Amino acid sequence: MRHALGGAVAALAVAALAAAALAVPLGAGGGPVAGASSGTGGSSGAGGSSCPVSALATHKGTVHITFWESMVTANGKTLNALTDAFNAAQHKVHVTLVQQRSYTTTWIKYQAGLSNGQLPNVVQLTSIDLQGVADSRSVVDVRSCMKAAHYKTSDFLPRVLSAYQLNGVQIGMPFAVSGPVLFYNQLAFAADGITSPPATLSELVADAAILKAHGSGMGLKLDPWHLETWLASAGQLFVNHDNGRRGRATKAVFDTATARKIWADLDKLVRSGDATTNLATGSAAYDNLLGIGSGKYGMSIDTTAVLGTVEAVLATGQYPNVKLGVAPFPVFRTGRRGGIEVGGSALYISRHGPPIDRAAAWSYISYLDSTASQAAWAKGTGYIPIRRSSARTATVKALWAANPGYKVAYEQLLDGANTYATAGVALGPYTQVRAAELAAEESMFQSGVTPAAALAHATSQIDQIIAQYNRRIGS
């Protein structure tokens, strides 16, 4: 899309860069966050009874609360519309949105607020921030709100809830959920004789070679999330203590035959020239998707959070050589009892302010996670509805009928096992861990380091990072 397309290219680039805020990022900070305590990693230390949801019924007047959110473009408009509807439907609670523009910005500002006292009542943070939030001991476990409200969770997708639990305690309330999928050009596949998208990593490697032989290939974003997802699809852990879900992680455990095979396949992809890499951050973050439009690539892996933006641009008709296909993330191997990790973000209730503010915050976030709201959210953004009842609404059925690609990520979360491996990794210094992971991966592609040596080095580096973090917070 970049060559000879002028303004259309700029429009897509701007849209893609705006969508970058919606993808699962590498994060910020890495901790320990200011004000962190020596918690065990299983609870935020907020106090399970600190969510007096019934207090709103007798409260006189309106409770005003603030929500630091991280949405932009169409996603921001949809969140504004839902919040306006909530504010108009009752007079007990009024929510003011404070847009932070990105998850990274939100997390940095929240960490600063732990020292200066400038905190919101509700904050939206990604899955990789879970342990850091818990270590800050600054939020109310939403489990206490659920108990006080007799709130039922059986309608939620189990893996979505598991993503924000530590030691079985629900710390955050899942909200904007995404997942990695395969984007591919159906026209390129048909022309090159590929009858179906790859279902496994091995098939991905083989199909990339076929595409390259016919003049395209694969765009491979350098995102550590993908290694973690391939491990999860194989039912394998990344760190000990059940991925940090049943006790604070103290060491990496991913240097296995499975991980060596994953990195060997990726190394083969890149060093053969069948795939070309780009970073997951910065101005090149969407080169993999832009390459599909230009014909440089026939496929790539990315988050469903960009699907709405990509389809909107393709709908302009300026890229007639692209017929977008969306397929499930190519798992490590079929038949393995794993599953795809949850991406996206959750809502956390801050302990900042009086107890009535927490009751008001719970009223708002339970509204955002209601059946109707999640259906509207999915329609307006392309995020995955996190309730089964939302998926059964006419709103979502119509969306999926018109745009089948939106349904793929939902079905991925229903498929496979719900285990500590598929819940994802809980780590305080997640940013540094992923940086070490990325550096080791790049050493294969750029310096010829063997996959086995790269994994061994990454494991050693990550063990040191985790140990240093745990010492700093006194755990």
Explain the layout of strands and helices.
Elements: H1 6-19, H2 55-58, E1 63-69, H3 73-89, E2 93-99, H4 103-116, E3 122-126, H5 130-136, E4 139-140, H6 142-149, H7 158-162, E5 165-166, E6 169-170, E7 173-178, E8 180-185, H8 186-191, H9 201-213, E9 218-222, H10 224-233, H11 240-244, H12 257-271, E10 275-279, H13 287-294, E11 299-303, H14 307-314, E12 324-328, E13 343-350, H15 355-368, H16 371-381, H17 388-391, H18 394-402, H19 405-414, H20 420-423, H21 430-447, H22 451-472
Parallel strand pairs: 1-2, 1-3, 9-10, 9-11
Antiparallel strand pairs: 3-13, 4-13, 5-6, 7-13, 8-11, 8-12
Shape: globular
CATH class of the largest domain: Alpha Beta
- Residue stretches low in confidence (pLDDT < 50, at least 5 long) are 1-49
Largest sheet, if any?
Answer: 6 strands, mixed
* End-to-end C-alpha gap: 50 Å
Number of strands: 13
Would you write up a description of this structure?
48% of the residues lie in helices and 14% in strands. Strands 1, 2, 3, 4, 7 and 13 form a six-stranded mixed β-sheet that branches. It has a five-stranded mixed β-sheet with strand order 10-9-11-8-12, sandwiched between helices. A two-stranded antiparallel sheet has the order 5-6. A hairpin with a 2-residue loop joins strand 5 and strand 6. The chain folds into two domains: 6-23 and 186-339 and 423-472, 3-Layer(aba) Sandwich (D-Maltodextrin-Binding Protein, domain 2); 55-178 and 341-416, Periplasmic binding protein-like II (D-Maltodextrin-Binding Protein, domain 2, 3-Layer(aba) Sandwich). By secondary structure, it is of the alpha/beta class. The chain is built from 22 helices and 13 strands.
